[in-house]
Amino acid sequence: MNPKVFTLTVIAGLGVISTFMLLEPIPQDPGYHNFADSRIVIGIPNGLDVLSNVPLIVIGVWGIVFTAKMLKKSGSKAPALLYFIFFIGIFFTGFGSSYYHHAPSNDTLFWDRLPMTVAFMGFFCAVICEMVSLRASLILILPLLAVGAGSVYYWHWSEALGRGDLRLYGLVQFLPMILIFLILIMYKLPVNYLSYIIAAMFFYFVSKLTEVLDIQIFQLLGIMSGHTLKHVLAAAGTCCILIMLHKRSNQLRYE
């Protein structure tokens, strides 16, 4: 096995093992559903948290159309297919998140998280395809999509039994980001790639921070909560990927 691939595999394995050995099951905090901004906007409960998902839907559609055009190009279509899966996940995340914020509960949160795992795994495999191995990305995509979906089903099932466990979902959300960071360090970068990926990851991590600071940001700004801002930042990060694809549309390799 290639030493770099071996290193990434070991780190991934250690991440999985340590998570389940060192951490107790993590139930969903019931207070998570109590968002700072519950104002009704144009008749919609929690209006800004719902409507702030529109940019994700728009970018999702734009990305689906663009990558569908990429799929029509000759040669291997692996990169385009994986980005297509990513934007499918983004598109349905916009709807799932809107549905959840209209009536926050564990049951509606399921439909928010499920498409997010599609986006996570599609993006992760796209990075693998472009920088590590096209073959490996195609081998991994279906199992990783199954693991992602399974993590949400497992969380929802465990909550229904009264012993909620978010550990697997947490791995699906954060372990790929750690591995992507390592891949960016270890492998040769495609042209017009790094700045857009770093920007996307920056917006993602800042969005997670604003999610944690939901109430504080709402108290500071008055017009927008941290969770609403999270949606806007997540859309900005997704837009970075779409801009990168437009910039590199004639440079992507399909061999």
Structure keywords:
single chain, 255 residues, mainly alpha, 10 helices, globular
User: Strand portion, in percent?
Assistant: under 5%
CA-to-CA gap between the ends?
22 Å
Spans of at least 5 consecutive residues with low confidence:
none
Roughly how many Å is the radius of gyration?
Answer: 19 Å
Give the tally of structural domains: 1
Percent of residues in helices: over 70%
The total count of strands amounts to 0
Give the SSE string.
HHHHHHHHHH
Q: Please state the structural category.
A: mainly alpha
Give a quick account of the main beta sheet: strands, pairing sense, barrel closure. none
Please tally the helical runs, counting DSSP H or I stretches of 4 or more residues.
10
Query: What's the rounded overall pLDDT mean?
Result: 93
Query: What best-fitting shape do the alpha-carbon axes yield?
Result: globular
Sequence-ordered SSE layout with sheet pairings:
Layout: H1 3-22, H2 47-51, H3 54-71, H4 78-102, H5 106-131, H6 134-160, H7 167-186, H8 194-212, H9 214-221, H10 226-247
Structure description:
The structure is a single chain. It is built from ten helices and no strands. The protein has about 260 residues and is mainly α.
Summarize the entry for a quick read.
With 255 residues, the chain is mainly alpha-helical. 75% of the residues lie in helices and 0% in strands. The chain has one domain (56-247).
